[in-house]
Amino acid sequence: MLTMWNKARELAEMTPPERNRWVDFLRAVSILAVVFGHWLMAGLYVDPAGELQRGDLLSVSSWAHWLTWGFQVMPVFFLVGGYSNAVSWSATLRKTPPGQTGTYRDWLASRVQRLITPTFPVLLLWAALAVILTQLGIDREQIRMATEAALIPVWFLAVYLLVTAFTPLTFKAWERFGWASFAIYIPLAMLTDWLTFSVGVPYVNFTNFLWVFLAIHQLGFAWQAGKFDNRVFAWATFAVGLAILVSITVYGFYPVSMVSAPGGFSNSLPPTLALFALGVTQVGLVLALEPLGRKLLDHVGVWTATVLMNGMIMTVFLWHLTAFVLVMTVVWLGLGGVGLDSVPGTGEWWISRPLWLAIYILALLPMIAVFARHERSFGPIRGGRTVPRVRAVFGVLMICIGLAATAGVTIASPDSISGVRWWVIALPLVGAALLGFGPVYRPSAETKAAEANRGS
Fold it and tell me: The pTM is what?
């Protein structure tokens, strides 16, 4: 870890003064909030009969539903994504000679590579584990639960990649129509919820994955364009968003919890108007705090920690639930369930949380050591060759469908001989191949430094 810190310190000292460090800080904080939120909300315990029960904090403590307003921060990640994609796409357009083709294809492949490359190891590991455990005769339902829990994070990547793929169109819409390019998603999200809850139209609610997160992505464009530089406007955005959020949850139809919880439908899978309002609220708050945050990040230690976290961000995000499953497996099968005798939400359970969080972190550290250094070990094949546009788009779609299926139907098969749905594993791998990825890109230290400081 000391070596990683020293490398991060070197990169931190190379950061150009014009870089908006608040973008990187929000990216790191939003992912960490998801990680600790998952670790905190998940709860396995041993009942008086000695049986392992699957529970969670939200099922036993209704007051904890309010905590999801702070831990459900995926909208912040899409805000940061909008800012970063605006910077990256604008720079690409400026550097592209007139008449050159392949601009969008190369840009999209680059953005996809940064997210999909770290996903391959966790997918392949759990596919191998599912096969081994199936052949050992482990109950298939337990295998399904383990793979489902460990691979929950990948649904987000499917949505994020899809939103990113729309960047040239949505950015052009922002440049031409301004705030209207954001506002159009409000009635679309409202109409989707009305069709879902009032009319009962099936599956239409899944379109809100686009309407809600494309809207927040547009706010990232607005941020990059300086529209939130007036902090009064940012605070007003926060106040309006919060007022709407409270009115439609506390006094309205939507559950308070922003994630799946007993006693109500999910506000996040798929997103609802309530998550839209939460996103606007969070955007207003974090951008109102930007001046204070940027002063804080002038401190070299704080900025170094931010650089370090961003260098392993996808590894932490993708592997944190694998660490959780590993710990629970060792405790239950190896240690006889020691420490799992407290029911989630009780005083004893809360007192033990710091210790359990420390254990999860310790379990995650080896995974970071092994996989973080390889986050960009696969990349576009070099040599000036680009893939056809249709092939690139089809590749992205295959990746998104595969990742969505991984989270939606899981990779574990209840009836196949191998115990794995191989088509789910194959889709993102074939999609990456169509984009031209291969194990050929191992950037030098100088390249890493340039990539870390170019604002994308």
Answer: 0.89
